[in-house]
Amino acid sequence: MTSTGPEAPFALARYREDDRIRLGLVAGDRIRPLDQDDLGAAGLNDFLAADGWDRLEKLVGADGPWRPLSEVTLTAPVEPRHVLQAGANYRTHVIQLIMAGIAKEDRDVAPEELRTRAERVMDARAASGRAIIFLGLPGCVVGGDEPLVLPAYSDQHDWELELAVVIGKEAYRVTPEAAPAHIAGYTIANDITTRDRVFPGGVGDMGADWFRSKNAPGFLPTGPFLVPARFVDPRDARVVLELNGEVMQDATTAELIYDVPAIVSDASQTTRLYPGDVILTGSPAGNGQHWGRFLKDGDVMTGRISMLGEQVVRCVAAVDS
């Protein structure tokens, strides 16, 4: 549960009520249920496609069945068909990972050479004009109502707090200039990554295994709020992650190599983006690989992004069956 909403004037949330999940309008520390008449649509993704935010704004000051936000259990505010993830999109983050020996072939290289190599890689990435985009599994998207279960097959589970884009109007082969018109809103995502599964041994130089390293159950904590795009400046949103109260990541999206319109446009050149789809934009410096400290049983991660509120994720060790 959370007691306060995002800094934005209003947002959407999904919450548990008995044995079902309901949509709610959040304003400050209050929430009210939304039905089809309120939304003017059959469900969340239809609402996003129709760009119905003005309809909801009229309800913010209206009487109705409001209740304290602290009384409800929030879950992930999105229902994506696709989850796409932009990788290596913060220069300092990638340099830190390479310096920490994230790639197996780099572990015996002198630090100065590693840094020089990493800087060349990032310069080439920026000049290429193409973001690195890979797929996540929608089934891994969960809310703060579920603990993050740390699989026992590794002790290198890491955090990556990210600004996440939520698609509204369907997009296919759109330009960067046209991309903002296809964005319904933004939310918080934490792209949990098992570091020692990124580059598996015994397969030669075959590249990264994003499937096994990023798609365990619950590895995409998302939310708790979906904030209308009009309230968020994706060019300079502050991204902060605390682990047990200690700041580990603190940066702004001004550091993105490829900005939000470029990522949305690039993704849409290959696949059709549907209402409700989620696109992660990359994570800044300060991951566990850099600090030499990975997630453990009992850890609590608190993520904050400008205008989007606060995400709390509690970690528990897997229990052998």
How would you describe this structure to a colleague?
Pfam families: FAA_hydrolase (PF01557). This is Fumarylacetoacetate hydrolase family protein. Belongs to the FAH family. One of its GO terms (molecular function) is hydrolase activity. This protein is an alpha+beta fold and 321 residues long. It has 2 domains: 11-75, no CATH class; 83-317, Fumarylacetoacetate hydrolase, domain 2. Helices cover 21% and strands 29% of the residues. The protein is built from 8 helices and 20 strands. It has helices at 36-39, 44-50, 53-60, 91-99, 111-128, 210-214, 260-270, 288-291; strands spanning 11-17, 20-27, 30-33, 67-68, 73-75, 83-87, 132-136, 141-142, 148-150, 157-158, 161-167, 183-190, 193-194, 220-221, 227-228, 238-243, 246-252, 278-280, 300-305, 309-317. The strands form 5 sheets. It has a 6-stranded mixed sheet with strand order 7-6-18-11-12-15. Strand 16 and strand 17 (246-252) form a beta hairpin. The longest helix has 18 residues, at 111-128. The chain starts with 10 loop residues before the first strand and ends with a strand. The mean pLDDT is 91.
- The mean pLDDT is 91
Work out the helix count.
8
SSE run: EEEHHHEEEHHEEEEEEEHEEEEHEHEE
Main sheet specs = 6 strands, mixed
Inertia-based shape = globular
How many domains?
2
> Could you list the spans in which at least 5 consecutive residues all have pLDDT below 50?
none
Number of strands: 20
Keywords: Hydrolase, Metal-binding
Protein name: Fumarylacetoacetate hydrolase family protein
Organism: Microbacterium terregens
GO molecular function: hydrolase activity
